[in-house]
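Two proteins, back to back. First:
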Amino acid sequence: MRLLKVAFRNYKILEDNVFEFAENPFYYSAPNETGKTTLIEGIKDAFSLAPARLKDKKTAGKDVLPVLEVTFRIGEEVYHLKINAQDETVSLRGSDGTDLSRPAAIERFWDQKGYHLFPAVLNSLLIIKERDLTVEVTRGLKALMDTVLKSATIEELKKSFENMLIFQKGWELRFRKQSFGKEEKQLRDELAGLRQELEHKRSLFEEYQKNMARLEALKKALSARRKEQEALDQELVWLQKKLTYAEYQHLLAEGERLQKESLLKEQELK
């Protein structure tokens, strides 16, 4: 990636300035309190993809919120990133047809382009100030650059990346230190704890499956009992109906007998 242009609107001391990076490397020399550090801060804010960060960074005496625009090139393609605190929007458009408007999508864009450590680079981006240099210019450019490369700023940046990256020892890849500051032993201990927790949850899940199997068996047994009860209820109803019919037949026969006896008595009386 190479920066081509950075445009500021209502951003701190830079107000409405545009910086074009025609040369590589780019050198920017200016008096104190004129925006050298603010330039780097603005680039970091632009690539943070967080418009809310700009709300407290508007130019003094102005009520209009900042807008940052960065133009850069990756390979042969040119991209334009815009962070607008006024309407809280983020956009990334490119000559290859890229058109993104969500921070998560833009972060995936970095990953797809191979810039996995890009946020860390920006987070460590600092200006090498004059007070970091202790060499006289008369000693030559090589001495000056050697001093720059050994300055506290460069050393800090170097250590930051050494601590983040994975190093190889023998045939084994190990963590030197994660970017969130955890040592290898601490990570391994946490991993062991997670494995124990996973094993515990697996045993709980197995017990749950056993209980579910028991519950299904009980449901089947209960269903069979209900069917048996329904069959018994039906048989009872049938018996009740049969008993009622038998009583009816008995009463009918008894009525006929009494009627016959009554007729016989009437005949005798005559």
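And the second protein:
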Amino acid sequence: MISNNISKGKTNNKKPNFVSDNNWKLMWRHWNTPQALHVSTTNSKNRKSERDGDGIHQHISGSKSYAKIKYEMMMELGEEPAITDLVRKIHMKSDGTFVDKRAKRIIEEVESIVVSEHPSTDETDSQGSNSEASITPVMRDEAFYRVVKPHKGRLFGLGTAQMENYDHIAPPAVVLTRQAQLEKEVINLTGMVKLMSQQLTALCEARGVTASDATTNPSPSSPPSTNEPRI
């Protein structure tokens, strides 16, 4: 990425080939301003912060943005991934170990909430743990929003992925929570429609008609009067 190359050039004091001499001088003039130096110092301090015992933030995404990683996961899965899956992708190595303490703690808390509040109706495995068949991404997202508190309107673990829900009035944390609630309502409505469809099918079978006949040729509410004159 261009920004990464410029950052490396600044650190090594070596101008990238795609930057002109004049622009390079302008960049250094900006970087040496009091405001830019203050921002740089603050950002450096934040990156090295112990975060209340969780240690320095670490991830394995390299220079790839969180939004790009989320997009690739969507292309692979065919649907939007759960936030916990995105956090795992960014902070967990292939051997299953986390490189970031806070990410590990958050995932464990979220999974604990989901399993306790949504016990599976399916059979349990040999260790007696709940099957994940009945646990949906929305359930995990809701638990994530309860565990992770927004800081300055942003949520830990999402990076640029949360900016796709940017709202000029509401911060990402508010928009994401609202979106999760809407998704839950859609799922509930879908379930209600499915149940009504099943009830309609059962009623039609009891009357000896098909559901299509019942909708295209509905039976009259009352039989026609035999006293009506015939034409």
